[in-house]
Amino acid sequence: MNDAVNLADFELRAESLLPKGVWDFIAGGSGDETTLAANRAALDAVALLPRVLAGSGGADTGSQLLKCEASLPVAAAPMAYQRLVHPDGELALAAAARDIGIPYVASVLSSATIEEITEVGAVTWFQLYWLRDRSQVDAMVARAEAAGCQVLMVTVDVPVLGRRLRDVRNAFRLPAEVVAANLVSGGFSTAHSNPLRGESAIAAHTQEIFASALGWADLEWLRERTTLPLVVKGILDPRDAVRAVETGADAVVVSNHGGRQLDGAAASAAALPAIVDAVGSRCEVLLDSGIRSGTDVLRALALGASGVLLGRPLLWGLAVDGAHGAHQVLSLLLSELRDALTLAGCANPAAARTLAVL
Amino acid sequence: MNDAVNLADFELRAESLLPKGVWDFIAGGSGDETTLAANRAALDAVALLPRVLAGSGGADTGSQLLKCEASLPVAAAPMAYQRLVHPDGELALAAAARDIGIPYVASVLSSATIEEITEVGAVTWFQLYWLRDRSQVDAMVARAEAAGCQVLMVTVDVPVLGRRLRDVRNAFRLPAEVVAANLVSGGFSTAHSNPLRGESAIAAHTQEIFASALGWADLEWLRERTTLPLVVKGILDPRDAVRAVETGADAVVVSNHGGRQLDGAAASAAALPAIVDAVGSRCEVLLDSGIRSGTDVLRALALGASGVLLGRPLLWGLAVDGAHGAHQVLSLLLSELRDALTLAGCANPAAARTLAVL
Amino acid sequence: MNDAVNLADFELRAESLLPKGVWDFIAGGSGDETTLAANRAALDAVALLPRVLAGSGGADTGSQLLKCEASLPVAAAPMAYQRLVHPDGELALAAAARDIGIPYVASVLSSATIEEITEVGAVTWFQLYWLRDRSQVDAMVARAEAAGCQVLMVTVDVPVLGRRLRDVRNAFRLPAEVVAANLVSGGFSTAHSNPLRGESAIAAHTQEIFASALGWADLEWLRERTTLPLVVKGILDPRDAVRAVETGADAVVVSNHGGRQLDGAAASAAALPAIVDAVGSRCEVLLDSGIRSGTDVLRALALGASGVLLGRPLLWGLAVDGAHGAHQVLSLLLSELRDALTLAGCANPAAARTLAVL
Amino acid sequence: MNDAVNLADFELRAESLLPKGVWDFIAGGSGDETTLAANRAALDAVALLPRVLAGSGGADTGSQLLKCEASLPVAAAPMAYQRLVHPDGELALAAAARDIGIPYVASVLSSATIEEITEVGAVTWFQLYWLRDRSQVDAMVARAEAAGCQVLMVTVDVPVLGRRLRDVRNAFRLPAEVVAANLVSGGFSTAHSNPLRGESAIAAHTQEIFASALGWADLEWLRERTTLPLVVKGILDPRDAVRAVETGADAVVVSNHGGRQLDGAAASAAALPAIVDAVGSRCEVLLDSGIRSGTDVLRALALGASGVLLGRPLLWGLAVDGAHGAHQVLSLLLSELRDALTLAGCANPAAARTLAVL
């Protein structure tokens, strides 16, 4: 897609290419999509005060995220079932991440196995939903470690799937060729049964295989279980951020799951500053939910984030042109961020944390 | 209505089914409907900070309201003339409340008698507009007590009916078969005469049978008159909440009557926090006006409410499919609230009061 | 107009009846009409906390304004050339004011003479623009006093006419039969010459006959000149309100001239509270600009105003049906205010000043 | 254009006359044009409290900017390539500035040479983008001094060109007859090569000839280099304003380059007050970005600015009718400002700084 000038151009193209059910699955939020909209509004409201005469010239976007080198302070967000939008799925997105030089966060619900994904050669992080018993979790962590994953990210905002009404209206279910590949060998049902009328097959399947009563003791167990850096994803209340750090987390992701879990939850950018205040000196703080441009990344940095996770825009690129499309999205974002940093007088992402916002 | 995914789906269906005059009567607010709109805007503006890793799994929505068990912290709001939207009227709504397990608040202006309603077997509360002299009030309270009502709710925000312009434009009047059934035996005129041009028959009838100069001394008298728990409905100013508690109220309902009385009154959700601060430790504080989802219930709880009254959505369900439709509405709301609590890391409604809001 | 349920109904009818040039002259504001819109937005933003159980029943709207009895705390705002919208012009509006029982403020730029207007029998106040020399002002004050005017109101926000672009685009000029009747005998040009392209004849005429360099010394002179109560109209800055009181003003009108003078000026309702704080204990504070309903009057009272001036809606009524139409507007406003006060638990306008606003 | 009543009328006409690519080049902002829109919103939000009875009559708009006399506190903003919109380009705009009596800021990227421009006879200031080495800068400054420029303005917010997506989509390039005339004799490439797909030729050319790593040491060098008053344009953070003053700047321009550089930057009017607080007593503070009326100039003055730069509206006038059109724009703005000052009770621009804003 040679004529794209921003990430939104990929969005329009992807929507025109994908079946409605798939598009709605990736684009939609939960409930009235209040939180989905709030994510954008909160980012748009961050008015930056750029610095001048910084003497730095073109900025360097290079960063470290959880001690992994990254060509920009962005990681590919964990997203389930990437083969829904393109046959190459996770392998293509991982390749794009590898080629641009950012971490790829592989979802436990990938439609390729973690072993296939790490084979691509990106810096790979493994994202975990908590399965119904610890032995399963243990096995998945072991596989991730063995496959060479460098960071373990546990998602804590899905005790139950959010009420994603588009999926319910569409009676959305995975096509037969898209399965939770990691779980095939674990004795899980991986195929979706036909959903009942008024039910989302994704929600039903989630309910079936995930533990919903996850607690801090589980996190403590996991912290003991692995030496990998541990990231807790899905935190909005500073009290939980503090508890996560006290439990040994190396980073938290301030996130409302892209507006897909609790509708009515605060915008992640609105929740970020208090969390940075609470734990920013003790761990890395990442942000997701709503990032659509280099300016958005700069906004997140100015609010105190160490970096961001990029989600939907990567699926747009993947849908449009596989690994190449996803790489174009990342390449465009890198250019935008480099320009935004340069225009803000920041030599690098770290310098952006000193920017003032109105 | 098997394809409804939220309460708004019932609204659309009900609007398509009901005569315009009836629809406008239940949907409309007073004046320019500023307050009607503000109710929604204030709820939408409540941004929640959910908690994670609470270890509680799926939440329990069970509550107590005025010491009555409730399967969710919701009571069916008192609404006049429910036979306007369905022949089964109050009896159907009471049955839905009974089946889901929440209190049904019977309006003094019901189109079925309080005795018929309590016969249905729901936990029934009785709502009183103050009639023109105390002997009438006395008689109505006696009937409510005798019929087994467990709570007495007195509405204090109708010294005169709000200027509901839709009803005036429609020259709305009750059809002959819908009467104020409780008042038939009380010597009241229950039929509406033909309204004058530019007049609402409902407003004229209200003016005719209600006392408009109700004062605190009347409330004191009522407090002496009955041993039932007493709820004062229609309070927005904390000074009045304090006075109500001092007069012996067991609960107040923060309400602007669904935007149907003083246009320009504050949104009830905007008025709630100051009232919780003023009297929350001394009595229960309920909220109504604008609740449309489980997230809204959670918002009310997070702002400090003990529970909410649900009004118009029950009429939508009733209009669509009688008792079954109303039950579907409540069942959907219960599911939404259970999910919202679970997603917010709250084991039960009481836990929601510790949530932070932005 | 028997089917009007609010003042906006008169607006729609009036717009359909009047020539576009006349409609634009009365409806328009200056510049981009930012202030015109802000007036409404500021009133709409005043969220009231009504009181309950006040024991007062139906409210009494009766008031005193500058020691004149008024059936509601409203005076008919001074507006030039009322014959533009109806042949009966000022005489009809004064009759409507007389019949409902409120003061009528006669503009020096009336299309009937002050003597003709006072003949109607309303409580009449006289509004003065400062003419080019003091002898003319002196003569006009003498005529007003002789004609029985009870209050003198001097408008101080027209050192030059606002840039009313609708009038410029329309090259608006008064029709031949509408003249500044008071000025005929004063040797003024009262007919408008043909405006130049891109000019408003009203603005040119204003420039020709008014003094633009009015200062506090002039106000002092006027204060000495007459024993009538003196009202200074067009104040937005509290420092000017203080100065006006110190100069002997009995009241100030917080006003931006209906958004017709400085575009970009603050909404009058937004400016009101600071002025009430500054001078509310020492003089009456009136409000104009944007009042469209009884709720708006209540809002003004709750913000601390003693009363309001009503402008455009009276012209709507006048345009629709002469004195009868204007009386309908006032009668409707009185009903709305009575209901709003009653619903807010206020026995009378004075009680409204204790209402809290959010 | 005899029927124009405000600057927006010129905008509409200009848009209808210019080729889309040229229109987009002058009208557009960078990125999502968030900052472009914020500039207007911030000005619209400045609610003024005019003063009355100031005794001053019609205001005098005369000012001094950097010790240059100006008939209103406005200078023609530096804008590149003015021949894009009219063959007379800079010479016409300079003539309009001369005739109305305000400074004309000649851009280093003018399509006429600085010598041709100063020949017109306006008070001319010279605006500098920092060229790739100091000898070029030195030479340009020498030429500006020799040509009689009275002020030197250095733009510091273009370390790289903002991502102006309209230009990228249009593959915008200068027509052959429009060149950077000052640079022809300096050995620069002045013609644009054909842009690559997805690239703006303007951006590529900027990158080629400008230094991007400008620092405070460079500004110190420039301060030593010339005795001309020095203005630093493009400051939003008060810390940079302080540094500029400490480096010897005589004025700063609070600007986001008309929303054309960092999208997401704060509105200039929103950033202004903190900068006035920081350096207003030590240097002049000018504002640009979004000024469209006399009220906007008044707003800027009330917020503490000494004056403003006017950009796009001059190009509209130029496009519509060359020097005459630009003069009409300035003449209209002067009238608007005179009226706005008069209506605000300000005898002159300096008095406007005492106005209060809400």
Report on this model:
Four copies of one chain form a homotetramer. With 358 residues, chain A is of the alpha/beta class. Chain A has 14 helices and twelve strands. Chain A has helices at residues 7-17, 20-27, 34-44, 89-100, 114-119, 134-147, 165-170, 181-184, 201-209, 216-225, 238-246, 268-279, 294-302, 312-343; strands spanning 48-49, 63-65, 68-70, 74-76, 104-107, 124-128, 151-155, 230-235, 251-254, 284-287, 307-310, 356-357. In chain A, the strands form three sheets. Chain A has an eight-stranded parallel β-sheet with strand order 4-11-10-9-8-7-6-5. Chain A has a two-stranded antiparallel ribbon with strand order 1-12. In chain A, strands 2-3 form a two-stranded antiparallel ribbon. In chain A, α13 links the parallel β10 (284-287) and β11 (307-310). In chain A, α1 (7-17) runs antiparallel to α14 (312-343) and α4 (89-100) packs parallel to α14. Chain A is globular and about 55 Å long. Chain A binds chain B through residues 31-32, 34, 38, 156-157, 159-160, 162-163, 165, 168-169, 197-198, 212-219, 232, 234-237, 239-240, 243, 261-267, 270-271, and chain B through 2-6, 44, 46-58, 293, 295-296, 298-299, 336, 339-340, 342-345, 355-358.
